[in-house]
Amino acid sequence: MLELRPNCECCDRDLPFDSAEARICTFECTFCADCVDGALKGVCPNCGGGFSARPIRPAHLMAKYPASTKRVLKPQGCAAA
Predict the structure, then answer these.
(1) Has this prediction a pTM greater than 0.85?
(2) Which of 32, 34, 46, 60 is the most buried (most CB within 10 A)?
């Protein structure tokens, strides 16, 4: 099950469970669409893989399967990429 991490690792933008702007790689590194399309140029800075839109978990399942609250942030943001 996906963690549904709450933020972009580069800019720390909030990415709620139902955000259409969330992008993930195969290791579930999580970034916003602006960082993926801009600074990262579609390549994950952690693993070198590509990105896909993060699936949206239906709201009625959030109580049983909540999203993660653990924020992951690269210290230098996208500049660390």
Answers:
(1) yes
(2) 32
Please tell me what DSSP assigns to residue 52. Answer: E
Q: CA-CA distance, 61 to 31, in Å (whole number)? A: 23
Report d(CA 80, CA 23) in Å as an integer.
Answer: 18
For residues 64 and 1, what is the distance between their CA atoms, to the nearest angstrom?
12
pLDDT at 81 exceeding the cut of 60: no
Sheet arrangement for strand 30-32: 30-32, 22-24, 52-53
At 77 the three-state DSSP class reads helix
Rounded mean pLDDT, 14-43: 97
In whole angstroms, what is the distance from residue 78 CA to residue 81 CA?
5
pLDDT at residue 80 greater than cutoff 60: no
Half-sphere CA count of 51, side-chain side, radius 13 A: 24
